[in-house]
Amino acid sequence: MRIEWWLLLSVYALSTGILFLIPKNKIRLATVAFLFKQIITFLIGLVVVELGLLEYPVRLFASINRTSFTYEYYAFPVTCAIFTVWYPHNRRIFIKLGYYITFTSILTLGEVIIEKNTDLIKYIHWEWYISWITICLSFYLTRTFCTWFFAKPED
User: Fold this and answer.
1) Which helix H or strand E contains 30, and what residues bound it?
2) What DSSP line would sit under 94-130, residue for residue?
3) Chain-centre distance of CA 59, in angstroms?
4) How far is residue 34's CA from residue 21's CA, in Å, rounded to a whole number?
C-alpha cells in the first residue's frame, strides 16, 4: 500500500480519536460547527478544484468528486469542531488571536509537508499563505455562525 493510503487511514483514525475530546455538554456545539464547516468546504473546495488551483491526485471516491473527501468532509470539520468547542471565550484578545494563529498554522504546516512529500495534494496556482488565510477565515466564519446559532434570544 502506498504511503498516501496509509496517511489517509491515519487521518481517519486520528480525527475519530480527537472526537473523544469533546465534552458531552458541548456535543451540539461540535455538531453544528462540524456541519457548518462541511458546507464551507463543500462550496469552496469544489470551486478551487474546478478552477484548477489545487489537485488531489490520490483521494477517496475519485470517480465521484475531485476534492479530498478525507480532508474537506471529515478531518477539517472535526478540527473545526474541536476549535469551536475549546475556544477561549472569556480570555483576552491576544489569547484568542493566538488560538486562531496556532490552529491555522498547524493545519497549514501539515498541508505544506503533505504537498511537498506526497501525492495527496498538489498546488497548481496556489501558495501556502492562501491556505493559511482561507483556513483562518473558515474558522472565523464557523465560530461566528455558532455564536449566532446558540445566542439566547432577547425578550
Assistant:
1) helix 27-50
2) HHHHHHHHHHHHHHHHHHHHHHHHSSS-EESS--HHH
3) 16
4) 14
> Is 154's pLDDT higher than 90?
no
Q: Are 4 and 58 in contact (CB under 8 A)?
A: yes
pLDDT at 155: 64
Neighbours of 95 (CB within 10 A): 10
- Provide the residue ranges of all domains of the chain, joining segments of one domain with +: 3-7+27-146
CA 136/CA 155 separation, integer angstroms? 34
**pTM given for the model:** 0.91
pLDDT of residue 16: 93
- Radius of gyration over every alpha carbon of the chain, rounded to an integer in angstroms: 16
